[in-house]
Amino acid sequence: MWLLHWLPNWIFYAVLIAGVVGLVVSYFVRFLSFIPFVYAYKTPIQLLSIVAIAIGTFMSGAIYDNDTWEARVKEMEAKVAIAETQSKEENIKIVEKVVTKTQVIKTRGQDIVKYIDREVVKYDTKFAPGGECEIPKEFIKAINDAAEAPK
Questions:
Q1: Distance between CA 29 and CA 45 in Å, rounded?
Q2: For residue 147, pLDDT beyond 80
Q3: How many domains does the chain contain in total?
Q4: How far, in Å, CA of 139 to CA of 118, rounded?
Q5: Assuming Cys at both sites, which of 5, 8, 49, 61 could form a disulfide with 22, CB separation 3.0 to 4.6 Å?
Q6: SS3 57
C-alpha cells in the first residue's frame, strides 16, 4: 500500500486510539456536559470516531500484512542467495567435466591419428599408382579398433 510508505505507522495507531477516545467521550456526554463542544456535536463526533476506528483498524491490519509479506520476501531472498551459491558450485563442476571430456576427446583423436598413421604405413606400399585400390580388411579393422573407446 502506497500510504504505508508515506506515513509512519504510529499515525494509524493514533487515529485508532483517537477514534476510541472520541467514541467513549461522546457516549459519556452526560457526565461531560460542562464541555459545550462535546455536548453540541455528539452525533458528528460519534460518526467521526467510528470512521476513525474503522480506518485505524484497517490500516493496522494492512501494516501487519505488509510486515508479514516483507518477512516472506526476506526469507525467499535468503533462499535465492543459497540457491545461487549452489548453482555457481554446480556450474564449476560442469565446466570441469566439459574441460575434462574435451581433453579426453582431443587426446583420443590424436591417438586415432597416430594409430592410423602407423597402420597406413603397412599397407601404403600396396597402393602403387595405376594399380588397384583395394582397402584391405585389416586396414578397416585397424580404423575400427582405433575408434573404439579405450579400455
A1: 11
A2: no
A3: 1
A4: 11
A5: 49
A6: helix
Rounded CA separation 116/37 (Å): 110
Q: Which H/E stretch holds residue 151?
A: none
First vs last C-alpha separation in the chain: 68
**Measured between alpha carbons, how far is 137 from 139 in angstroms, rounded to an integer?**
5
DSSP 24: H
* Per-residue cell: 107: 587426446
pLDDT digits (tens, 9 = 90+) for 108-118: 778 777 777 77
The whole-angstrom separation of Cα 76 and Cα 145 is: 55
Q: What is the pTM of this model?
A: 0.54
Domain extent, residue 26, equals 2-147
Secondary structure letter of residue 21 according to DSSP: H
What is the grid cell recorded at 97?
A: 567435466
